[in-house]
Design a protein that fits this description.
Elements lengths: L23 H6 L17 H6 L2 E5 L4 E6 L12 H20 L4 E11 L7 E11 L3 E9 L5 E12 L3
Antiparallel strand pairs: 1-2, 2-4, 3-6, 4-5, 5-6
């Protein structure tokens, strides 16, 4: 697998960070590498990533990882909301598909399924996304969400279609 972005340090004037991205502070706060900023210049990471508190900790074609706090993402019983786990999984899978597609690629979700194994009760959960299939027109990824003790909270699978750049 190859990475269509250069995820190392970004030098000024390389075109990766033009200095006028209106989401610079947001993208930095959420751990998005500067080389992906042009792709996110129109909408940033989106309002849901902001609301859920998702922070990326690793980003490559082979592995996208992020954390999300349980606090603030709970359902009425005080445990992690299953929809929050699903949103974390879809976010990771979509970013992974975008990395595979490269600049100008536009992944759109076709299918997301999530199996919940245990309750997330406190602290942070970590989602790890790895590819199952990386094709020219579709990708499939598995996302494992675990609690701070390393126990699996849920397992998800997402399939994205890769639209041609427009």
């Amino acid at each position: 697998m190859t990475d269509k972005y250069t995820l190392g340090p970004v030098a000024p004037g390389t075109g990766h960070d033009d200095g006028v991205n209106p989401f610079r502070e947001q993208l930095t706060r959420h751990g998005v590498p500067a080389v992906m900023w042009p792709m996110l210049a129109a909408h940033g990471v989106g309002t849901l990533v902001e609301k859920l508190g998702i922070v990326f900790t690793s980003m490559s074609v082979e592995r996208v990882e992020a954390t999300m706090p349980v606090e603030g993402n709970q359902q009425v019983a005080g445990i992690l909301h299953g929809g929050a786990s699903a949103a974390l999984a879809e976010t990771l899978g979509s970013f992974a598909a975008a990395l595979h597609a490269g600049p100008g690629g536009r992944p759109v979700g076709l299918d997301l399924n999530v199996t919940h194994h245990r309750a997330g009760t406190s602290g942070l959960v970590t989602g790890v996304c790895t590819p199952l299939h990386l094709g020219r027109s579709t990708t499939s990824h598995e996302i494992v969400v675990s609690d701070e003790a390393g126990r699996r909270v849920c397992t998800a699978r997402i399939t994205n279609m890769l639209l041609d750049p427009s």
